[in-house]
Amino acid sequence: MRIDIITIFPEYFSPLELSLIGKARASGLLDIRLHDLRSWTHDRHNTVDDTPYGGGPGMVMKPEPWGEALDAVTGGGEEGATPRLIVPAPSGLPFTQQRADRLAAEPWLVFACGRYEGIDSRVAEDAAGRMPVEHLSIGDYVLAGGESATLVMVETVSRLLPGVLGNAESAVQDSFATGAMAHLLEGPVYTKPPVWRDREVPPVLLSGNHGAVDRWRRDQALRATARNRPELLDRFTDDDLDRRDQEV
Ligand SMILES: Nc1ncccc1[N+](=O)[O-]
């Protein structure tokens, strides 16, 4: 997968040189390219923002640098390929594991990181004439810009790509994963030693009875979900739960 990130703070993305994503980039599984939006400004101050029409607080990012940046970055696709443009914004559609699964199937993503009060809306309208454009939100709070959200989305999507995680299985067992534990929160996890500060690991996990372990894990996941995210349980119908009983 190719990922382009356009931002006025390229250094914000140095964490993408570390750990699993860093290794995936080094191995060629991931081709992440950073672009400084100011490269497409032509004035002495490399201006990227201006006051909002209609008044109001803050600044809006100017359309010209973005238009040139997107032309330059998205024009260079192999055999004229076009990317999916992701614009992180609090006003966007919710970024969920299901949406991450879908994005992980895309060959090429471009992230436009807006700062201030956002990017002039004509930029996304103009780009939509040439490529799919999605405004996505990672949560109902206001960040100073799209960079943190882009880090979250890039990490969430990248770890789903085959070969990026050491053990692809663990992506399946995660909270919100698809399959039998879909939409359930992950329950408690344990590793050695079997007793620590007089606290024992639940005996079922040491029993070697995989059916009992799976049932225990699903029960714990249902409890965690009921406690912290009861609204996620509404998605289950009775036969869903019955089906899970068969599956687990
Ligand atoms: N929540 C956000 N705040 C600012 C920019 C982007 C955001 N987001 O969720 O993608």
Structure write-up:
The protein has 9 helices and 9 strands. By secondary structure, it is α/β, with parallel strands linked by helices. The strands form 3 sheets. A 5-stranded parallel beta sheet has the order 2-1-6-5-7. A two-stranded antiparallel sheet has the order 3-4. The chain has a two-stranded antiparallel sheet with strand order 8-9. The model has no long low-confidence stretch (mean pLDDT 91). It binds 3-nitropyridin-2-amine. 3-nitropyridin-2-amine (JBE) is lined by residues 88-90, 92, 137-139, 141-143, 145-146, 149.
The tally of helices reads: 9
Biggest sheet strand order reads 2-1-6-5-7
Would you list the SSEs in sequence order as H and E?
EHEEEHEHEHEHHEEHHH
Give the N-terminus to C-terminus distance in angstroms.
33 Å
Short précis:
With 248 residues, the chain is α/β, with parallel strands linked by helices.
Strands, helices and their partners?
Layout: E1 2-7, H1 19-26, E2 31-36, E3 49-50, E4 60-61, H2 63-74, E5 84-94, H3 97-103, E6 108-112, H4 122-127, E7 133-137, H5 147-158, H6 168-173, E8 195-196, E9 199-200, H7 210-228, H8 230-233, H9 238-247
Parallel strand pairs: 1-2, 1-6, 5-6, 5-7
Antiparallel strand pairs: 3-4, 8-9
The chain binds 3-nitropyridin-2-amine.
Name some characteristics of this structure.
248 residues; alpha/beta; 34% helix; binds 3-nitropyridin-2-amine; five-stranded parallel β-sheet; 9 helices; two-stranded antiparallel sheet
